[in-house]
Amino acid sequence: MDFFTIVQLGDASIRMAIPLLLACLAGLFSERAGIFDIGLEGKMLAAAFLSAAVSFASGSVWVGLLAGIGISIALSIVHGLASITFRGNQLISGVAINFFAAGLTVVIAQGWFAQGGRTPSLSGAARFDGIDFPGALTRVREKMQASPGMQFYSEFVSGHSILVYIGLLSVPLTWWILYRTRFGLRLRAVGEAPEAVDTAGISVVGLRYSAVIICGILCGIAGAYLSTAVQAGFTKDMTANRGFIALAALIFAKWRPWYALGACLLFGLFFAIDNRFQNIQLQVLWIMVILIGASAAMVLYAIKREKIDVIVLGGLSAVLTVIALATWVGSTGEEAGLVAALFETVKVPSQLIQSLPYLFVVIVLAGFVGKAIPPRAGGQPYVKER
Amino acid sequence: MEKMPKWADVILVPVVSLLLAAIISVIVFWSVGQNPWEAIKLMAFGAVGTSDFLGYTLFYATNFIFTGLAVAVAFHASLFNIGGEGQVLVGGLGAAIVCLFIPWPHWTLALLAGGAAAAVFGALWVTIPAYLQARRGSHIVITTIMFNFMASGLLVYMLSDALRPAGQMQTATAIFPEATHLPSLNDIAGLFGSELFGRSPVNISIFIALLACVGVWLLIWHTRLGYQIRAFGQSESAAKYAGISAVNITMIALLISGALAGMMAVNNTMGINTPQLVDNAAGGAGFIGIAVALMGRNHPVGIIIAALLFGALYQGGAELSAATSIPVQIVVVIQALVIMFTGALDQMVRSPIEGLFMRFSSKAVKE
């Protein structure tokens, strides 16, 4: 793997990470204020559709972006109504918003454009194009022959759409709002101890609504980015679970902005690797080490604890061990004995690579690697004392 | 504080919620240039208009009874199992393995074994999220969502690799042996010389679904375990003081939930006209279970009614999209609206109705 490949991989990671990052920061505002939001996916999807549709109709991508933000805010307010005003179940409201967007985008897209649930392709001013910085090379062939510094500048730094830079800038901005402004302090407080905020004479409802509206704005940008910058138009279910991965990144980042950037870049890298390398080979020895190592760790953890730990973790480690042994035995052949089989390589199923972010999330949630503690009042509607 | 009568809570509130969902659906039809009245007529005909259509409606309702019960059992323990979709897929793997690799002499034995395998596989798929919820406090909603994605990855891998017969193009298992094919209701009607249900796949697993309803009803309201589940769901801390183990109840409630979802796979693998396990076999039934459980107020009777309604909606929506340019996703929109109004915005519907009843009852007292 030469330097240019690494730069390209980094470039792809950033492009993949931006929608995750925007959605993750959206979730951060909402959850820091005590409103769980599993409807990020739906809001992004609705914004992706409407911004593509309006961009196409108006010919201006900026109008499209505004429309996307608008619909996302509207859905946020519905979520706010359900979870703040009517004190409903926030998870159920999020689920409903996801389905609503998943269904309605296709129905409306078919009704308006009759292209099988897509919008027509966008071009010219109806799309966000990459911005080439001064002096940056644009042709792939020129880039490949340039010096490493120039490659880095041309491929990695330059050439992204403006939304990428907005996304990256929103990290320090989020940090500044949360930790350096009065609003941010109150926002964090309302997620931890709403009764204290209320006692201080500050409106819990007002703060929470402003948090979900900020969440809507960020989701709107994320959705518009997908349909007007990454792709040229909306396609059915184009968010492809990014809203859920953003939630996972948020938990992994423990609800902090800079860590969110790190987590999203990591998940972006997963996607970039998956896109670029279709055929990932791994030596059997490594598979054995990973699987049996994990099994051993689980057994060691369980053995000193209760019966339930032994049953569940023991069972899981047995399954992993069987998979490891099966891979080993399976790669012995006519010329390869048991020992030689250890150094054979096998293809890692692409489905497994695609499942890695999800698996990673579960491992993080399990809390064996640094426990993630959510905002204390998260998910609970606030009932004013009388 | 006085409460409104029970019939209002059980019937009036869901009906008003449904009406609200229907009004918004009408607006949606209207906005895509479809006459709402025509669309509703088409859907109603598509759902129950012919014997075939009715059979399909019942077939889908069977699916939704299983997934609705699965969500409801978890809800009683105040746990939100959103992973029904994944549990159905993995349950399908269980049923497929049992049917393909063991030569069953008769469908009754295959049904027992396949049902058991589907239930066990479904329960196994929820074991890790349940364990993490019970012992590590990892949120069940997020973990089960992740397990849904992993289940579809696992299924695609199994269907395109291990379980796919050589030379077959479709990502699916081989067609199960004839002896494992469950008799359809049409076969049963045929015994009496009737043509009822035509070529629809509705089959005897609908009776298994009804049995499961009875089982859940007995479990939740007539056993010690059910009492513990409900107590835990009402108040975790009170249940703990009463000596109920939070870890055990969380595990057991979720395992039962996973097993119920897994059992749906019997209907959509062994019960269909060409019995096999196909890619994306659950088809969203796991999620519709959420709407069904919410609308059915987590009670088996309510779940049966809600499942029939959603079965009709699903089948009617399919016919509607075949007859007009409206895509099937219209069903997802209606499902979302039902979840929203009966689940999250429940209070919005309930408090005005409650207010009305209070006003009337206070008047009655004065007079």
Automatic annotation (TrEMBL), chain A:
<keyword id="KW-0472">Membrane</keyword>
<feature type="transmembrane region" description="Helical">
    <location>
        <begin position="65"/>
        <end position="84"/>
    </location>
</feature>
<feature type="transmembrane region" description="Helical">
    <location>
        <begin position="351"/>
        <end position="370"/>
    </location>
</feature>
<feature type="transmembrane region" description="Helical">
    <location>
        <begin position="257"/>
        <end position="273"/>
    </location>
</feature>
<protein>
    <submittedName>
        <fullName>L-arabinose transporter permease protein</fullName>
    </submittedName>
</protein>
<keyword id="KW-0812">Transmembrane</keyword>
<dbReference type="GO" id="GO:0005886">
    <property type="term" value="C:plasma membrane"/>
</dbReference>
<keyword id="KW-1003">Cell membrane</keyword>
<dbReference type="Pfam" id="PF02653">
    <property type="entry name" value="BPD_transp_2"/>
</dbReference>
<feature type="transmembrane region" description="Helical">
    <location>
        <begin position="285"/>
        <end position="303"/>
    </location>
</feature>
<feature type="transmembrane region" description="Helical">
    <location>
        <begin position="162"/>
        <end position="179"/>
    </location>
</feature>
<feature type="transmembrane region" description="Helical">
    <location>
        <begin position="12"/>
        <end position="30"/>
    </location>
</feature>
<dbReference type="GO" id="GO:0022857">
    <property type="term" value="F:transmembrane transporter activity"/>
</dbReference>
<feature type="transmembrane region" description="Helical">
    <location>
        <begin position="310"/>
        <end position="331"/>
    </location>
</feature>
<dbReference type="InterPro" id="IPR001851">
    <property type="entry name" value="ABC_transp_permease"/>
</dbReference>
<feature type="transmembrane region" description="Helical">
    <location>
        <begin position="91"/>
        <end position="113"/>
    </location>
</feature>
<keyword id="KW-1133">Transmembrane helix</keyword>
From TrEMBL, chain B:
<feature type="transmembrane region" description="Helical">
    <location>
        <begin position="330"/>
        <end position="349"/>
    </location>
</feature>
<feature type="transmembrane region" description="Helical">
    <location>
        <begin position="277"/>
        <end position="294"/>
    </location>
</feature>
<feature type="transmembrane region" description="Helical">
    <location>
        <begin position="301"/>
        <end position="318"/>
    </location>
</feature>
<dbReference type="Pfam" id="PF02653">
    <property type="entry name" value="BPD_transp_2"/>
</dbReference>
<dbReference type="GO" id="GO:0022857">
    <property type="term" value="F:transmembrane transporter activity"/>
</dbReference>
<feature type="transmembrane region" description="Helical">
    <location>
        <begin position="53"/>
        <end position="75"/>
    </location>
</feature>
<feature type="transmembrane region" description="Helical">
    <location>
        <begin position="12"/>
        <end position="33"/>
    </location>
</feature>
<feature type="transmembrane region" description="Helical">
    <location>
        <begin position="87"/>
        <end position="104"/>
    </location>
</feature>
<keyword id="KW-1133">Transmembrane helix</keyword>
<feature type="transmembrane region" description="Helical">
    <location>
        <begin position="110"/>
        <end position="132"/>
    </location>
</feature>
<keyword id="KW-1003">Cell membrane</keyword>
<keyword id="KW-0472">Membrane</keyword>
<dbReference type="InterPro" id="IPR001851">
    <property type="entry name" value="ABC_transp_permease"/>
</dbReference>
<feature type="transmembrane region" description="Helical">
    <location>
        <begin position="202"/>
        <end position="220"/>
    </location>
</feature>
<protein>
    <submittedName>
        <fullName>Branched-chain amino acid transport system / permease component</fullName>
    </submittedName>
</protein>
<feature type="transmembrane region" description="Helical">
    <location>
        <begin position="139"/>
        <end position="159"/>
    </location>
</feature>
<keyword id="KW-0812">Transmembrane</keyword>
<feature type="transmembrane region" description="Helical">
    <location>
        <begin position="241"/>
        <end position="265"/>
    </location>
</feature>
<dbReference type="GO" id="GO:0005886">
    <property type="term" value="C:plasma membrane"/>
</dbReference>
